[in-house]
Amino acid sequence: MKIMLSAVAVSAALAAPAFADVKLDEAYAKALDQNTKGRAEDAVKTLQKAVGQCGNCPEGNVMMGRLHEQQGNLDAAGAAYNAAASGAGAGKADALAALADYELRTTAARAALAHAEQAVAAEANPNTLSTLARVLARIDTTKALASADQAVAAGATSAAAHHGRGVALLALGKSEEALAEFRKASELDPKHARAVASTAVALIGQSKGAEAVAAARKAVELAPNSAEAHAILGAAILASDKKLWGEAIAEAQDGAFKNPKNPEIQMIVAKIFEADGRYDQAKQAYAKALETDPGFAPALNAGLEAKFRSGDLNGALDDAKKLVAQNPNNGAAQLKLGEFLLRKDNYVEAVPALEKAVTLLPGSAEAQYYMGRAYQFTGKTKEALEPYHRAVELAPNNPDFRTTYGLLLGVNGQYEAGIAELKKVTSVPGYKDTAGYTNLGWLYRNVDPPKTAESIAAYKKAIELDPKNAQAALGLGWAASYGKSYDEAIAAFQKAIATDKSLSPQALKGMAWAQFFKKDFTQSRATLKQADAAGAGDDRLEQQLDRVEAILKGGGPVDEQAIADAQKAQAQAIALQNKLDAVQDQLKSSNAGTRARAAQEVARIAGGDAVPILHWMLVNDKDYGVRGSVANALGSLGGAARKVCPTLKAIGNEPVTQDPFGNKETIDREQRELAFKKACRDAVAKIGC
After folding, report:
1. How does pLDDT run across 251-269, given as a tens digit for each residue?
2. Which residue among 137, 202, 421, 551 is least crowded, i.e. fewest CB within 10 A of its CB?
3. CB burial class (10 A; 0-12, 13-18, 19+) of residue 88?
4. Whole domain around residue 323: which residue ranges?
5. How many domains does the chain have?
6. Is the CB of residue 603 less than 8 Å from the CB of residue 614?
């Protein structure tokens, strides 16, 4: 399990702006030395005296807040920061920033936002702008980067400014750029423990566990009392070696003990518990995070994920919609909403959520991948290429992303490019995922000219890895048929049917073609009738059978020319089927809206060749809205849909028994049925039959 962190709330005790008062600096240094030697009370007295001498100045109270934090006295620290922010004179702006920083680690981010904005209003310097950026990283990532850019512009040599920009970039999912900023901050100030700890966070996000541990240990060395540094070290240890779970949770819980109010720390604790399957303890940690900040999106998203994993997809989707309504600029929330909508086959509604997600999280490979999927299943196969390509760029070692991207290149006619992508996947030592070989088989048999031997080999490898891969069996049937190994083709089609009944229509059609080329014309006709009844009739094969039967009745032989013509017709049928592959899953979707749109799309793609599929849906789909869309699609085909006229007329003229005393559900069903029958009558008029 990868622990994703944001690094927005690393302790203020790690780094803060230096003040100009030399006496205060000397008193603070003395107090820190006393504290290190175990003389905590003397340390407080030393600093209290200096603060009193400066008239309770903002700078002095900020130092007092830092000291109390190092001693683990968060309440006293809060009082000191509030006193600093309410003071007047020099250091007022930085005092407000220090209070906002403290609030970011102990309360809701929106509470910190007010003081961060006041700090910038008082003085827009690198420190205040950086603080605002880090607060906004928890609320609005786009605004966070804008504020961070201003911080760097105000102080290009400011470690705080570069650290703030790194935090903003990390919140956008841009871990490489964030890492560069954190390292720049560390170069500018080698003792900037906050930047070092954030470096560890970025390295964890890049799955560089060993490097992350080294950085986190350095942060702890620089700031041994930092709660956040210890928690980040725990996350880094787990990222480096899952077997070190005990050491990882010990460090994280040490951080939680030092600052139980920091929601970021509670998130780390929760994720480490999850990594060991301790979901009840993880749930408690998430609850503590939300107790501190009810709007803390990472914890809310984790709750959505937990509800989804429990099997309550509908509940998770409802919660995701609420979360997005409350946090429209939270990329992670938009991503979860899009993901759950995809899982419900609601591709159209998923598109706007995912378009926002990729904007808010431009560095997220997952967001790009889901965006590609949403485009793909709304018929935008060309538009899907770019986000899929971007997902591969962002996560080049993710085989699933590259496998899908390779297939979509082929769907868009770029077969050689798709083959090259899939070869990268399947050539990785130890690769054993059936999907890569299945997609490679499809590309090989569709490239012009087809690479039949390579296609057969790829499909057989896919089936070897997963004997229940019905899609590979179906593909093997077509590839073997291309290679004129018709018995092998028929056996493969039969295997596809036996393994997955939903593939029966396509497999029956393929089997009918193979039987035709074996010159078993009677069986081919019978199998084609079965395919037609299942919604996969093939007018081209029917025409070839009619032609052959006429030749045989005339006493002539079925010569090679007739077979050659049939092979051309088969090639055209397969080319059409390749286009339909893009909507095949949508036609079987559990979401009625998706099926309705797919019916319109298949009519657009296939024209008159869509009639068998649409005829089957007209009769068999259980949703009146879908059937109405099918009737409209048939009507759009005009005379090409003439063979469906008897069915359309029968349905359209059949009366609906209405119950005037029915409940709302009954009345709604009757209205949908009436609308469907009217669509059938309208289709008859358009077809002209």
Report:
1. 999 999 999 999 999 999 9
2. 551
3. exposed
4. 296-396
5. 2
6. yes
